Each structure stands twice: as structure tokens, then as C-alpha cells.
Amino acid sequence: MRAIWSGSIGFGLVNIPIKLFSATQDSTLDLHMLDKHDHSNIRYARINESTGKEVAWGDIVKGYKYNDEYVVLSDEDFEKVSPEKNKTISIDQFVQQEKIDVTYYDTPYYLEPSKGGERAYVLLREALKKTGKVAIGSYVLRTKENLCLLKADGDMILLLKIRFAEEIRSYEDLNIPKSATIKDAELKMAVSLINQLTPKAFSMSKYKDTYDDELMKIIELKAKGKRVPKPKFHIVKNKSKDLMEQLKASLGDTTTKRKKAS
């Protein structure tokens, strides 16, 4: 893997040199945009809106419109803003992870210690494990300040980019029911259904992205000039509108599926 950022973790007066690696990869098929008439690739061009001419990457700069005039910013200008955050993940505090709502979670990254930082890296990792806490910090990546969470994950210190509070939209304008009349028997049945669908051992590896596999079958058929059969899709609906009856039917359906699987 190739590091996308290098710097250090500021842990009190301890400085831990690290490299940042992306923990995720795109699993979707690489689909191209084509002209439907001759299947030529569609090319995106950077056009000057005044001249109508294409602009080379080397001639493109970033700017901010201020009082109807653009102020152009150079790479050096970005580096002058909080220069310590351009090279340091500054830990501000430690909290229990469950105190952070999952709504704030964004993108995971792996942290690897750079040469000379191994002992300090292990020290922070083991301290996080012992306290059961995660670290909250911030750093700058690609001209943007990022909030992050550091947690011990096996031998790894995982960095999880998290959103700032102002990035979370309010749901107050949505029509969310604050309460409804729920019968005790209905709640008991819903809990039973949850328990029935709760495995003894959970693993995310069970879940696979099968959509691309199915799409690839269609691509292969079309590539061979074969007709793609129209799929048969049937949504199973419960005939009863009674919530209790629907829950009972769900429990029975789950039991049947488990027996077939075994």
C-alpha cells in the first residue's frame, strides 16, 4: 500500500511519527461513460468560461470570491494555515467510543509507525486498550481540516475520520413520530423476532457485494450476443394489515429459512 499522508501523532509531549494508509477500496465495476452512437469515451474538459478554450492542469489555481473579486491561493498559503496540523494529528482528549454517535463516522484509515516511532506507537496502542478509550484529534489533509478518532484495533491503531457537528443536518423538519400506541404483546413479539435474527457469532465477512457479480453475468451475456432474460421479481406482502399478525408471520418465515439452511 502507498501512504497518502505522513506526519506524527501529538500525544502530550510524546511525538509518534506515522504514515496514513487508506483502509478501504472501491469494489464496484469500472463503468465508462460513452457516446451511445459510436461508443466513444466521453472526455471531461476544463473549459475557461470566458474564452471557451480548454485549460491545462498546470494553469489551474484555486481562489475564493471576496467582494466580487477572486483572491488566488497558492500551496504555500494553505501551508501557512495552522502549519502544525499539516504534519501533526493533535490529540485533544480521550473518551469512551460509545459517547460518539455513529452519525459522525466517516472514513477509516490505517496508521503505521515510521522508523523510530515503534515504541511510542505500541505505548499509545496499549494505553488505549487498557483504558478502553479512543483519542479525539484533528489534522489537515488536502487543504481541509479533519476531525478524527484513534482507536486500538488488534495490533493496529485505526484512524477513523469523523464529521464536525456543523456537518450533521438537523432532522427536525422531518415527520418523525415521537410516540405511537404499541401493545405489550406486539413489543414482546418484535423482541422475539430480533432475538431470533441475532446470531451467536457475528462476522461482517458474511456480507458480500453480489450486485457486481450479477451485473458481470449480464455483461458477459451481452458480450457474447446473447439475450438477457428478464428477471422475475416478486415482493412478498403480508395479506393482513394487523401488526401482530405480520410479526407472527415474520417469526414463522425466519424459522422456516433457518430449517432450510440447516
Layout of strands and helices, then pairs:
Blueprint: E1 5-11, E2 14-22, E3 62-66, E4 69-73, H1 75-80, E5 88-96, E6 105-113, H2 118-131, E7 133-141, E8 144-153, E9 156-162, H3 184-196, H4 211-223, H5 243-261
Parallel strand pairs: 1-5
Antiparallel strand pairs: 1-2, 2-6, 3-4, 5-7, 6-9, 7-8, 8-9
Helix pairs in contact: 3-5
Model description:
The structure is a single chain. This protein has two domains: 5-27 and 80-165, Ku70, Chain: A, Domain 2 (Beta Barrel), CATH 2.40.290.10; 184-261, no CATH class. It is 25% helix and 27% strand. The chain has helices at residues 75-80, 118-131, 184-196, 211-223, 243-261; strands at residues 5-11, 14-22, 62-66, 69-73, 88-96, 105-113, 133-141, 144-153, 156-162. Strand 1 and strand 2 form a beta hairpin. Helix 3 (184-196) runs parallel beside helix 5 (243-261). The two termini are 40 Å apart. The strands form two sheets. Strands 1-2-6-9-8-7-5 form a seven-stranded mixed beta barrel. Strands 3-4 form a two-stranded antiparallel ribbon. It has 262 residues and is an alpha+beta fold.
